[in-house]
Design a protein that fits this description.
about 230 residues, seven-stranded mixed β-sheet, three-stranded mixed β-sheet, 6 helices
Length: about 230
Amino acid sequence: MICRLGTVEYREALALQETLRERVQSGEQADVLLLLDHPPVYTLGRRSGPGDLPMGEDWYRSQGIDIVQTDRGGGLTYHGPGQLVGYPIMRIADVPGFVHAIEHAIVATLAHEGIEAHPREGRAFTGVWVGERKIASIGLHVSRGVTTHGLAVNVDNDLQPFEWVVACALPDVRMTSVSAETRRGERFADFQASLARELCAALQRAGRDIAPDALGASVLSPASRSG
């Protein structure tokens, strides 16, 4: 199942994931893929270090960017408007295989945009790359066989906030986006629809759309959820 949430504040989306994970673990809820974007936020993963925010947390918050510690894998990353975020809340048995399937789906979706992309070998390079530039990040947390967190693909978002930090625990990483590669803007809605199809195919999950209220996502505050 696919649930498109629009724009959701990060902490509220995290709380929703945790609620859904418990339901999937208990068998009350079927696997679901949440698709959304966030207001500006840096999220810290298990491989984040104190030097990842070199200008200090207060400076980043003065730029209007929230900072949240998480339990997912990977390093620091940035989320913002126009970046497509996917949270698969799913029961899995093979974590590496699941990650590779997500990478494959992103590569296939980018191919529809005329972008030649690829995964790279090595845990430090998990995600999807266009040449030496990173276009998508993946970081999961698995609890009792059920995933939270997920993937983020730069579509139409501002890339400048990545330049202010050490992103993905890679000091020299350079980020790119669908718009930067194609010189076409306003790709978010089309890309979201295409990625939803490719992810459901790669993960072998049903692609039926459901409304947020069907998941109890009506608990999200009106200020948090839009779109």
